[in-house]
Amino acid sequence: MKWQYTHGTRNPEMVNPDTWHLDFLRMNRPHAHKVNLELWHDYQNNLKQYPKWQQYLRENEPRLLVVWVKNEEYFPESGAEAFKNDVKNVDYNIYDTDHFVLEEDGFEIINK
After folding, report:
1. Are residues 67 and 102 both part of a single domain?
2. Is 67 found in the same domain as 42?
3. Total domain count for the chain?
4. Does residue 99 carry a catalytic annotation?
5. pLDDT tens, residue order, the chain (112 aa)
6. SS3 letters for the chain?
């Protein structure tokens, strides 16, 4: 759990340990592992929807704020790059941190 919050951060010692301790407690509830495995397995259905979402973006050109990170293990930066193929006017922001970007750059992101 700790690795998920500190891997790829600029200052791992600045990440509040309560984050992974609370996740550990949450994951130790009855059936929590099963629920999370089902969620991760279901992600394949999310991927199947990408063509619809991409079409929507191309046709509607919504205002788009992309907040992504460089050191992500689950969702690589190439996922953020893909938005540029479908939307011309993107507020594109890549942060030098990991999955839990708000732990290090929350104030900057909130004030965008």
Report:
1. yes
2. no
3. 2
4. yes
5. 899 999 999 999 989 999 999 999 999 999 999 999 999 899 999 999 999 999 999 999 999 999 999 998 888 999 999 999 999 999 999 999 999 899 899 999 999 7
6. CHHHHHCCCCCHHHCCCHHHHHHHHHHCCCCHHHHHHHHHHHHHHHHHCHHHHHHHHHHHCCCEEEEEECCCCCCCHHHHHHHHHHCCCEEEEEECCCCCCHHHHHHHHHCC
